[in-house]
Amino acid sequence: MGSVDEERPFLEAGLADQAESSVLYTGDGSVDFHGNPVLKQNTGNWKACPFILGNECCERLAYYGIATNLVSYLTKKLHQGNVSAARNVTTWQGTCYLTPLIGAVLADAYWGRYWTIAAFSTIYFIGMCTLTLSASIPALKPAECVGNICPAATPAEYAVFFFGLYLIALGAGGIKPCVSSFGADQFDDTDPKERVKKGSFFNWFYFSVNIGSLISSSFLVWIQDNVGWGLGFGIPALFMGLAVGSFFLRHTSL
Q1: Which segment of 23-27, 199-203, 233-237 scores lowest on mean pLDDT?
Q2: Which position has the higher pLDDT, 174 or 193?
Q3: If you write DSSP's letter for every residue of 50-101 in order, what string do you get?
Q4: Cα 11 from chain centroid?
Q5: Which of 1.20.1250.20, 3.40.50.300, 1.40.20.10, 1.10.10.10 is the CATH number of 47-253?
Q6: Cβ-contact 113, 107 below 8 angstroms
Q7: SS3 for 142?
Q8: pLDDT tens for residues 125-149?
Q9: Other CB atoms within 10 A of residue 32 CB
Q10: How many CB atoms lie within 10 A of CB 62?
Q11: Is residue 12 predicted with pLDDT exceeding 50?
Q12: Can you say where in the cell this protein is located (predicted)?
C-alpha cells in the first residue's frame, strides 16, 4: 500500500479533473438532444432562448388568433347557430387544455422536451395550414348568404375545418407542457449567475406570451373581420412556420 504522500498527486489530479469538468460541463446533470453531457460554451444559456421565446410567441399568436374570433367564423362563414358555435368553441378549447397530458407523458418518458416540441409544433403548423385552406378555397367552405338564406356547410367542409382545428389542439398539447421548462433547462442551476439569468428568461417568456396574445386579439381580429378570414388565419400560420423553421435551424447549428 502506498503512502499518503504517494497518493496525493493522484488525488490532486482527480480534483483538478473535477474542477475542469465543472467549468466545461453543466453541474445539474443536463444533457443535449443526443444524450451527451452539455458543454456550456457550445449550447444552452441565452443561445437557444430566442428560438424558444419565438416559438411560444408564435404559438400564442396562432392560438388566440383562432380562439378569440372563432364563434364569429362558425356563425358567419360556416352558418352555424349561436348555440352550436359556442359548444364547438368550448369543446375545442377544452381539448387544447387536455392534450398537454399527452405531450407531458411523451416528453418525460420517451422523446424528451426538444423532440416533443419539434414534432408537435410541426403538427400545429399543418393544422394552421389546413385551417387557412378551408377558409380560403371556395370549394372548402359554404357559399355566402343571399339575404336571409345561408347554405349550410357540407360534411366534407366541416371535416376539413375541424380536422385542421383539432390538429392545432393536438399540436398545442406538445408545446404547452414543455416549452417553459425547456427554456429553464438552458440554464445551469448549480451556477449562481445562470440562476439569475433563468429568472430573466421567465420574465421574457411571459412577455412573449402576452405580446402574441395582444397582436392576435387586436390586429388579427381586425384582419379577419375587415379583410378576410383566409389572411386572418394565414398570418399566424406563416409565423408558426417561421417558428418551426427557426427551431430546426437552431438544432442543425449545434
Answers
A1: 23-27
A2: 174
A3: HHHHHHHHHHHHHHHHHHTTHHHHHHHTS---HHHHHHHHHHHHHHHHHTHH
A4: 47
A5: 1.20.1250.20
A6: yes
A7: coil
A8: 999 999 999 999 988 888 888 777 8
A9: 16
A10: 29
A11: no
A12: Membrane
